[in-house]
Write a structure and sequence with these properties.
Elements: H1 39-43, H2 45-49, H3 61-90, H4 94-118, H5 123-129, H6 142-150, H7 166-177, H8 181-191, H9 198-201, H10 213-224, H11 230-261, H12 273-279, H13 286-294
Helix pairs in contact: 3-4, 3-6, 3-8, 4-11, 6-7, 10-13, 11-12
Length: about 300
């Protein structure tokens, strides 16, 4: 049965008129945008859709560019939500933080599925364009590095790929030197009366954080009596969801790279798949994972 106009989504660019498009059947929709903002104007589609510039004659390079550009847009949203969630946790506004963290986990799912499209690229197709990529590599993504720093995987060496761009370098350096999302969660735990080592609460935020037995004990107490500490319990689970989704994104990256280039070195100079596999061993919120064994 055809869908009626009542079922249509207002503002959806794919919900065209139900009948032949003529002046008498446009259902009141404005057709002249010469003096007002249109859909394309609002989204700045001229700039967005004009940003794809393949460097090779390969038909498949468009896929490679679009996949990475859309991933960068999703990462921009993830950083927007992570910064706001961190601020909300700092200010003891946990319900908004839960919503933001859940949204980031869904963003990670979009990033995971983006690899499904790129995996349609065969080794032969990628080899045809690879010489035209130069030394460019996802390893150099400043937004990805900010996400890692925001999630607590700090490494000052990772600032170096951005030294040639002062503004970006300053942005990534700021992320390195700020408390991570997990750092703010630890401070929240302490504000709720759980004993946490002072060194976990005020330290060099750019340095790797040591594992905390006291924090592990605090989370264990939360998980043993969730009804007594429901907000902290929910925050812990949102963080685990987030790391779970982040791990899946990394894993799908590894398998896609191996499928397309095998064990060749990466264009950015890394060892390629072996390097990416080592990154899979990184644990962002170790006390939360250790609690699973303790319970």
């Amino acid at each position: 049965m055809p869908r009626g106009d009542a079922d249509r989504v207002e503002g959806c660019p794919f919900a065209g008129p139900a009948h032949a498009p003529d002046e008498a059947s446009h259902h009141g929709a404005r057709l002249d945008y010469a003096s007002t903002m249109s859909y394309g104007d609002y989204l700045q589609l001229e700039a967005v859709l004009g940003a794809q510039h393949p460097r090779s004659p390969s038909h498949d390079e468009m896929l490679f560019i679009v996949q990475h550009q859309t991933s960068e847009l999703w990462m921009k949203l993830a950083l927007h939500e992570l910064r706001a969630a961190r601020r909300a946790i700092r200010e003891d506004r946990l319900p908004p933080a839960f919503k933001m963290l859940a949204r980031v986990s869904r963003v990670m799912e979009q990033l995971v599925h983006a690899w499904d499209v790129l995996s349609t690229l065969t080794p032969s197709e990628y080899s045809a364009m690879r010489p035209h990529l130069g030394s460019s590599s996802g390893f150099q993504s400043f937004q990805y590095r900010e996400i890692e720093f925001m999630l607590g995987n700090k490494n000052p060496v990772m600032l170096k790929p951005h030294a040639h761009h002062p503004a970006r370098h300053a942005e990534v350096e700021a992320a390195l030197n700020e408390p991570s999302l997990y750092d703010e969660a630890i401070r929240l735990i302490a504000r709720h009366g759980f004993p946490v080592e002072p060194a976990q609460l005020e330290r060099d935020w750019a340095a790797p954080r040591p594992f905390s037995d006291a924090l592990e004990a605090a989370f264990l107490a939360v998980y043993r009596e969730p009804s007594a500490h429901w907000a902290l319990y929910e925050l812990a689970e949102e963080l685990v969801d987030l790391e779970d989704a982040f791990r899946q994104w990394r894993f799908r990256h590894v398998t896609t790279v191996e499928r397309i280039i095998g064990f060749k070195a990466g264009t950015g100079g890394t060892a390629g798949v072996p390097y990416l596999r080592r990154m899979l061993d990184t644990v962002l919120f170790p006390e939360l994972w250790k609690v699973r064994t303790d319970l």
